[in-house]
Amino acid sequence: MADSLIEMTAAELARKVNAREHSAREIIDATFEHVRRADGEIGAFLMLTEELAREHAERVDARVKAGERLPLAGVPVAVKDNMCLRGTRTTCGSKILGDWSAPYTATAVQRILDAGAIPIGKTNLDEFAMGSSCENSALGVTRNPYDAQRVPGGSSGGSAAAVAGYESTIGLGSDTGGSIREPAAFCNIVGFKPTYGRVSRYGLIAFASSLDQIGPLTRTVEDAALAYDAFAGHDPMDATSVDVPHENTASSLREDLKGLRVGIVKEYQAKSLGSAIDSVYAQAYADLERLGAEIVEIGLPTADYGIATYYLIAPAECSSNLARFDGVRYGLRVEGNDMTETYDRTRAAGFGPEVKRRILIGTHALSSGYYDAYYLKAQKARTKIAADFENAFGACDVIASPAAAAPAFRLGAKSDPISMYLMDYYTIPVSLAGLPSVSVPCGWARPDDGDAEMPLGLQLTAPLFGETLLLGAAHAYERATLHAKKHSPRIGVRA
Amino acid sequence: MAIASDKILKYEPVIGLECHVELKTVSKMFCGCKNEFGGEPNTRVCPVCLGLPGALPVPNKKAIELTIKAGLAFGCDIPQFSKFDRKNYFYPDMPKDYQISQYDMPLCKGGNVLFWLENDERRHCRLNRIHLEEDTGKSTHAGSADGRLSGSSYSLVDFNRAGVPLMECVSEPDLRSAEEAVGYLEALKRTFVQLGISDVKMEEGSLRCDANVSLRPVGSTELGTKTEIKNMNSFRSVRLAIEKEIERQRGILESGGRVIQETRGWDESAGDTHSQRSKEEAHDYRYFPDPDLSPLEFSPGWIDGIKKSLPATPYSKYAHYVDDLKMPSRRAAQLVDAPYLSDLFDIVTTRHDNPPQPISFMNFLLGDVAQKMNELGLSGPPEGVSSLWSVPASGAAFVNLLDNGTITSKAAKDLFPRVWSGEVLTVDVIEAEGLGQVSNRDEIKRFVDDVIANNADTVAEIRKGKDRALQFLLGQVMKASRGKANPAMVSELLREAIGSG
Predict the structure, then answer these.
(1) What domain range includes position A236?
(2) Which of A267, B65, B77, B224 is the most exposed place for a label (fewest CB within 10 A)?
(3) What kind and span of H or E run contains B109?
């Protein structure tokens, strides 16, 4: 019974709770029973919010009993620990926030809770969402449920692992350069980054404000659509949240791709990710065609500048965003002899090496004398990259590509930062253009350094505000292929 | 041994002012917290103005509008596009360790501030720009003798002020004396008060002013090395600090020395400036566009609408009063500085069919009306009262009663509270109540005769030449007539009766 509840999709759970076949309380009992058994090995959570979860479950059951129908009634949600949830400790995977407890709740989190979801805990991440493996967390190790020796991806690795390991049904993640899509690909789940501005960032602790976007990590596209529908839409608390009418995506999912033009990127095709991986993607594109899509070749000539561009803009913004962690008002404080020394000591002790590296890069890129050569030039490159996409969408409706440059790698395998940055080669240009993009499981390949097959993700990208089209296409592909079902996680479930 | 006087260099001061003005909006610049002076420390705060992790700014449209209003009042160019930038530096009273400000695309560019000096000389000072930013919190340093940071054992921060909309007006270095600097500040203050942009109270910090001061040889077009003077908390201290700094720099230059570029603080109690920091420690603020705030775009129609809603500027009013209406310059300035009375004056004198004589109307407004308003602590019309103010014709009618001799000024003073409370006084009302001025010779003669008969001693003194005592008798007659006797006629009849010519 417990296993079947934790394995159900959000759509199924909500249906059953609304029909009063199961209570939110039963689901939460089953969930925590499983989490207690599995999370010691997976390490997805930094904190469990069991008491809060039970309060919410009680409230949801009461609302349902009173006749309400909630789209996510009783569905467990794991919240990445860079989102505020009133009264709970929020760490960003960093030591610098200390025991800081958020005095308010992020808009997206509030909205998903209002839709009936139950907050079960806060998940691990690369410190301040800076990383692609979760290894930059200062607070714990998260393992890939499909191979405990491998990373879950990052930065939303905790939420991805929790969902992949059936510890939660929905994971909330944030994506700045691939932080939802890459861990989704690594963990054999769906990871969806909406258009920049679709989801309020209020209460999401900023890494790079012009790129950060909240999105769901789920085991099915339908669940991603349900979660997205719950929290998308304009928020007066976020001046960058757009006031564009939001369509219900979950009710417009499709089963085929007839009439859809899918763009395959010429420049990406010229690169090999190794024959095993290449053939998975070749098969994926063939499957899209089989479902009725017309495959067209498109060009993204400036996409190759994506990483260089991103690693100027994102650090520049983060150098400013993270200035507030200074030991004066909240979080860690390491006293010095004067104010400046207190700043220095606090930040030296509180931030990890990758965060410091990015603050330094960003500070330099904004310095007088370097601004034009770095920050300004990067902004111009960003405009060109976005223009490339816009141009490409003249010839196609959706662009298909790999989600990550490789399957999940072993813990500790990427010691130099550049090789880590390269994991996000395919996700970063999309982020710079602000486009909606989803990673869907698309097959399995044996990594160079291992015997067991690991999952791969297909990245589908749509024009700005094309979420309905995008999720519809991803749903048709998922239903026709069912790649995710080929293997079960090795840890977490039915150990 | 006479040194030719043209060998001695004469120096002229070159002064520019940077003014920070807190805007009078209901809420703060980027959040919904109340924008009010004072309050228990850290009670007007929220996640946004405290810079808590995850909080985001949303711009206050009213603040943007007020800044553009200020710019239009000074003839600034209002670009169609603008944006907010982050100014990055660490300071404990700055919640995010960056300030949201404007760098290269301010709301207002250029412009010109016209002003006058006490002796009615007219001046102008070009503006460089006006931009909008957020205020910081306020630090209090405890444990040191003088409340300064150095030597203090701990500091407290109050964030009530953090996030209050702050408008920065940067002038060009066009000012040539401390007096001009104060004249310029007064012009800013008048305009901002008139437009409801700010309270402009230096003592409450809603106006803060830094002065850049340098000296150069008369006739030179190059700028000398400047110092920046801070911490002045009244117009008086601005004047004193600039005078002191000019004197200091002149002393250095005349003895062959070199002025060092630095920031100097005005010490009110010492009446002098002292060095705070040299320019070598200048910050690199790493300005960049705030990614949390979209660029601003204004429709020309919206800006035109604001422009059309602007009233005549204080300077143009002043010039009109002095140049066209021949008011004494001090009275003209007084009237301009009472915006409500000045508006009333303008309406009555320009729109009314039978306008009162301007000078007597001005005297009435600055006299009786101002006094009444003072008593009641008002700066505008009292609540619920409208007649004099919303129908200026009735106010004008009242002044006309005074002007054409229907009532005496003494009676006007007594009648004014009734006008104030909304009553329309016409000639008929005055006559019906017997309040009109008495100009009937026989009637007045009776009062005069009575007074002379009852004050024989005084009459004797007058006859001996003590002419001033006549005023006493005049007062007695006025009292007897309950203020209604025509004073000129009383005086004439008294002199006739006493025979003192």
Answers:
(1) 2-252
(2) B77
(3) strand B108-109
Query: Which one of the listed residues A132, A133, A137, A155 is annotated catalytic?
Result: A155
**What does the alpha-carbon distance between residue B148 and residue B233 come to, in Å, rounded to a whole number?**
16
Establish if A492 belongs to a structural domain.
Answer: no
Q: What ipTM was reported for this prediction?
A: 0.96
Confidence of residue B382 (pLDDT cuts 50, 70, 90): low
Closest CA to B291 of B442, B83, B108: B83
Annotation marks residue A279 as catalytic: no
pLDDT digits (tens, 9 = 90+) for B11-32: 999 999 999 999 999 999 999 9
Query: Are A367 and B86 inside 8 Å of each other by CB?
Result: no
Number of domains in chain A: 1
- Any idea what the CATH number is for the domain that residue A215 is in? 3.90.1300.10
Report pTM.
0.89
Annotate B261-281 with b (16+ C-beta within 10 A) or e (fewer). ebbbbbeeeeeebeeeeeeee
Angle B35-B37-B41 (CA atoms, 0-180°, nearest 5)?
Answer: 95
Hey, are the CB atoms on A239 and B59 less than 8 Å from each other?
yes
Does residue A413 lie in a domain region?
no
Structure confidence at residue B383 (pLDDT): 64
A203 Cβ under 8 Å from any chain B Cβ: yes
Cα A59 to the chain's mean position, in Å?
28
Cross-strand partners of A299: none
Interval B305-349: pLDDT, tens: 999 999 999 999 999 999 999 999 999 999 998 888 888 888 778
Per-domain boundaries in chain B: 7-301, 311-432, 441-498
A179 flagged as catalytic: yes
AA identity, residue B128: N
Which of these ranges, A335-339, B108-112, B211-215, has the smallest mean pLDDT? Answer: A335-339
- Residue A482 belongs to some domain of the structure: no
Let me know if domain B441-498 sits in CATH 1.10.10.410: yes
Q: Which residues contact A79 (CB under 8 A, 6 or more apart)?
A: A85, A109, A119, A121, A122, A123, A159, A172
- Inside any domain, residue A224: yes
Cα–Cα distance between B119 and A470 in angstroms, integer? 74
Q: What is the pLDDT of residue B466?
A: 81
Cis peptide leading into residue A279 (ω within 30°): no
* Residue at B469: amino acid letter: A
Is B288–A330 a contact, with Cβ atoms under 8 angstroms apart? Answer: no
